[in-house]
Amino acid sequence: MSVDLVVNNCTLVTPEGQIGPNAGVAVDDGEIVAVGADDSLPEADEVIDADGQYLTPGVIDCHIHNRTPGLEYKEDWETATRAAAAGGVTTVMGMPNTDPVIDQPEHIQTKAELGEENALVDFQFYAVITSNNYDQVHDLDEAGVVGYKVFLGTTIGAIPPPNDGELLEAMEQVAETNKRLGFHEENDQILTHLAEKFQEEEKNDPIYHTWSRPPITEREAINRTILFADETGAKIHMFHLSCGTGAQLVAEGKEKGVDVTAETMPHYLWFTEDVMREKGNVARIQPPIRDQEEQDILWEEVHGDGIDCIATDHSPHTDEEKGMDDPFKNTWEVISGFVGLETEVPAMLTFVNDGKMSLEQWIDMHSTQPAKIWGMYPQKGSLQVGTDADFTIFDLDEEWTLEDRNSLHSKNTVTPFEGETFQGKVTKTIVRGDVVYDDGAVVGDSGHGTQVEVDEIDNDYA
Question: Is the pLDDT assigned to residue 462 strictly greater than 70?
Fold first, then answer.
């Protein structure tokens, strides 16, 4: 019997450990059919020699902005997932602050259809909960979203949050759906007050954007939402957690029995707020990049209970919107966000090479845990027989520098990682048995990606 594909001559990495060298996987009809030593694998129509490199379950990015529908001048399903493929990412989850926002079943259907037509890798996305739809959570659930999001702090699109009464009612419904509600966890009143104060005082340097959104804005929102989750039984998630003291509160919430999870991003672990003085508004993002003390605590929580997974908040904007003519111009005239899909794996592999985490911990946080948190495991995030054949293959040793951001595959490419040097590079990306990225070239087809079916979170894997 011959299968479709065998990838051999590699070391397999899962959260449980490593198999190899001289190990591989066999794939038939898009699913894994065998895992083990090379000489135990069946014959195949196609054999990929991984040349002694590493193979992991496909990396999952549970926080990107692909901008479809309505804001395609920034990014779209095709360009975002080309970047994902080039970055070793096999599944992405899109945010709902588009135009229109993803707040109704018909908008969900539109976003899904456009994804099915254009995506190169697999995908899912979130619905936003506002004052206009807080009582319609079950309708959003039935339309097929992976979960929900509330923007507590001012962000791109200026989507106002529901008031606390509406939020409590929405969270009661979220608990009934057994899906998860994520938050942009910043206190809007504090950050608005400080931003207005700094502008009145003509404090316009990029660092003042950072200081207008201090860690207390995150800590207050984390405390409040954990309290609400404890009251309602809702599963909750903290998106783009930037400060270590906020992650400590997540760990405390878990100790109290609240089902709360959190993600952080490579840029919060790589840079400190000094990057705002070095690279200016290029690194402007919200929540902002923190000081060294907060980063040190954040790293402690990566190894503790406060951080569960890694994502990017991949946020493409045009050069004009980012003020690239002068990265140190008036920060209040510049938009927040930058791209990250093609630098997240190299950044995390650099941390592995630096001894800051093991390969096993990295892939747990960047594949297995996102799949469990959002109800995709073990179809995604594992190397189990019978699951999707999604693989990220990489050279752990190769050192390289992102010399020119315009070599990236996103529609817009502003990133503070331009000029940074990494150790570790993606060489192949495979989605359901098909190679979509191969040694420097995106070879996947638009429309290969498909929406991942998610019913509800399986508590057996939580």
Answer: no
**Residue pair 98/67 in contact by the 8 Å Cβ criterion:** yes
Q: What SS3 state is found at 376?
A: coil
122's CB contacts (< 8 A; 6+ apart) are: 90, 91, 92, 380, 388, 390, 431, 432, 449, 450, 451, 452
DSSP string, 92-146: EEE-S-SSS-S-SHHHHHHHHHHHHHH-SSEEEEEEE--TTTTT-HHHHHHTT-S
**Mean pLDDT of all residues belonging to the chain:** 97
- Tokens for 207, please give them: 């660092």
Q: Which two tokens stand for residue 356?
A: 């800051």
CA distance 450 to 453: 9
Q: How far apart are CA 77 and CA 441, in angstroms?
A: 18
**pLDDT of 210 above 70:** yes
């807080």: which residue's tokens? 134
Between 3.40.630.30, 1.10.3720.10, 3.20.20.140, 3.40.50.1100, what CATH number should domain 59-373 receive?
3.20.20.140
- For the whole model, what pTM was predicted? 0.98
